[in-house]
Amino acid sequence: MKKQWWHGKVAYQIYPKSFCDSNGDGIGDIKGIIGKLDYLKGLGIDIIWISPIYQSPFVDQGYDISDYYKIDPAFGTMEDFDRLLEEAKKRDMYILMDLVINHCSDRHEWFQKALEDPKGEYGKYFYFEKGKDGKAPSNYRSYFGGSVWEPVPGTDLYYLHLFAKEQPDLNWENVKVREELFRMVNWWLDKGLAGFRIDAIMNIKKTDGFPDYEPDGEDGLVRCTRMIEEAEGIGEFFRELKQETFAKHDAFTVAEVFNMKEGELEKFVGEEGYFSTMFDFAPLCTTLGENGWYDAPGYEFFRWRKALMESQKECRKTGFFANIIENHDEPRGASTYLPDYAQNDDGTKMLATTSVLLRGLPFLYQGQEIGMKNCKMESIDEYNDIDTKNQYKIALEAGLDEEAAMNVCLKHSRDNARTPMQWSAGENAGFTTGKPWLKINPDYKERNVEAEEKDQSSVLSYYKELLALRKSEDYGEVFTYGDFVPAYEGEEMLLAYYRQDERKKVLVAANFGKGETSFLLEKEGKEILKNRKDVLLREKELILPGCGVAVVEL
Q1: CA-to-CA distance for 327 and 366, rounded, in angstroms?
Q2: pTM higher than 0.90 for the full model?
């Protein structure tokens, strides 16, 4: 494999609104991020992905961009951002931003001009279609519920929005749109940005004619992904995007990819792929429902383990996945991918080990390193997320009572990951001196950075040790480029795999069960890392208590 500058790195996602507030207005900002760079460097982070900080009305938390060339005043100024780039460079760290180019905000100048003249130049920047028999052009349901088509007052036209109605989809078939977007991407890369996390990119190609499909719900609509899955030719857009922007700057790109067609993995993340890497959502998909959060099956160890193993095997000869257990769109990993009895510090360390040492690029999400968990809200009014409010409504309509619907939100809400970062046991968890924009998880008194930095047995201390091992001189090569081979697949509650190359063979073994388990190694080994004192290696026998994990060099 051709070596790239980002190989062997560890990435960290910042949700800026909830990370660190420097001015007491209750909203995190760029200066707050700058003030925590040394903390992130000490943790072992190389690449920082910052969720959108562009100018936005914040209907969908910044993923509705009204000006791609401006920093929203809530986060600071462009001067603040330039200083962030400088300070990161001093520490040999790299900054990524979100690239949101499937849609923009309805407040964007392009869309405002399009509404003035839907048949004019800017009308062609979007999708304006005539209705059918007084109804929408087709029967697609948006990602956030309801029709993807919004009527344009005073006309027989509708515009397309796969997400919120305030997020009109950009028409990638229009060469002028692509040129505008490529110009913007290059502008940011020229500033010194190292690359992008690319949002919702599989949606940029639509099926010609927007045909109707058989409804899949009582609302008479069908999920919009049905149309996206049938679209042909998206690779041409990706190829042009890379050629005109990323390739010119040796930029690192990580794509949010759903609905990839079978056999296309190499085109996406191979040696000459469209993107550097893409998130592995296979484990997440095992927890999703058919009709919404209310009918999601929840976590089931064997289904989750199988998805993880199959995904790793699929990518082992092709390229790298970006491995995550949580992000800004998902609930907390420590509350999602562990059995109830394992939702403690030992279980959190075990989950961290199995994720960070996989083949691919580890992506941590803010607060993951201290074991932050889902936050119980007292009423739906305490939630801010647009999707949570929609899913709550869907759950009630499906027959759940309010308590059950709230429990569904506790398990799945995106706001679980958006509660403010817990820096200390002080006022507002040290996040702000003002009123935080979103409720702080009440467990901050015990679970916070300041307390965990002083405790050698904490989740944070363990993450530091784990990341140092991943990047160490002795083991960095095998954990970066080594093969992934499943191990001990017959052991019931064990998740185990080898990372190996010509020189080293390392076993990662985790006991997700309640009781102790033991098994024989193929040869004697040397213990490199463990999460509990009662994890024992006796010659060729490895003994793992419940929630025990060991990393052993054979």
Answers
A1: 8
A2: yes
